[in-house]
Amino acid sequence: MKKLVRSIKLSACIVAMVFSMAACNSGSSDETVTATETSDSSMAMDTPPTTADTTHKEHAAAVLSGVLPDTTVTGNVTFDAQPDGKVKMKLEISIPKKANMSVAVHIHEKGDCADMGKAAGGHWNPTNAQHGKWGSASFHSGDIGNVSLDAKGNGTMEMETDLWSIGGGDKTNILDKSIIVHGGVDDFTSQPSGNAGTRIGCGIIK
Fold first, then answer.
1. Nearest 5 degrees, angle CA 106-CA 110-CA 113?
2. pLDDT in tens, 134-185
3. How sure is the predictor about 57, in pLDDT bands with cuts at 50, 70 and 90?
4. How are beta strands 145-148 and 102-108 bridged, if at all?
5. How many CB atoms lie under 10 A from the CB of residue 140?
6. Alpha-carbon span 101 to 151, nearest angstrom
7. What 3-state DSSP class applies to 150?
8. How far is CA 51 from its chain centroid?
9. Under DSSP, is residue 81 helix (H, G, I), strand (E, B) or coil?
10. Which pairing describes strands 178-182 and 102-108: parallel, antiparallel, or unpaired?
11. Is the peptide bond before 48 cis (omega within 30 degrees of 0)?
12. Residues near 164 by beta carbon (within 8 Å), at least 6 away in sequence
């Protein structure tokens, strides 16, 4: 009888151990799933968004420098594409020798400042128009105009147009052209360049 009781107790213990192990294994499996889900969630939160950058703007610039040994010319010309499709130009220039005067500035057809600016060729004129004042009946796409300089020889100019583009077709693309600064003013009449005088400064649009 004692042996039978002992046998029953032993069997009960074995059954209890089996259920206990099953319960533990079941809990472990649940915890593993939970940990995996947490890890996946964390990775999803750390992944950067793939939305395209819509703030990018096309930009180009030219750094101006003198091409004559006796005249100092410094400055920058920037070009920025606008949301409406136009290009905005901002020019800042310094020519101490030309204080209180005006100088002509044009875009020329070649991106080359060699040979005292002569390598830049003539005015950029992709439409084969007559030279003239910007916005008049006839003018070159490179006919920027005259810039007034103050008592220190500093001057600025801003303009905006849909006749220019940064890249794109040959008739509008300003890249790899030159900005030429002349020693005199553009009379907007003389052909083909307005009798603006010697080239004293140059910068390539990049």
1. 80
2. 999 999 999 999 999 999 999 999 999 999 999 989 999 999 999 999 999 9
3. low
4. antiparallel
5. 26
6. 9
7. coil
8. 19
9. strand
10. antiparallel
11. no
12. 79, 86, 87, 89, 141, 172, 173, 174
Q: Which amino acid is at 3?
A: K
Take residue 38 and report the two structure tokens written for it. 């947490």
> What's the maximum distance between 2 C-alpha atoms anywhere in the chain?
133
What is the rounded CA–CA span in Å between residue 87 and residue 140?
16
Share of the chain above pLDDT 90, in %: 71
CA distance 116 to 89: 24
Q: What tens digit of pLDDT does each residue of 68-109 get?
A: 999 999 999 999 999 999 999 999 999 999 999 999 999 999
- Local structure of 147: helix, strand or coil: strand
180 Cβ neighbours under 8 A, 6+ residues apart: 105, 106, 107, 108, 117, 120, 199, 201, 202
Q: Which amino acid is at 100?
A: N
Say if residues 188 and 140 touch (Cβ distance below 8 Å): no
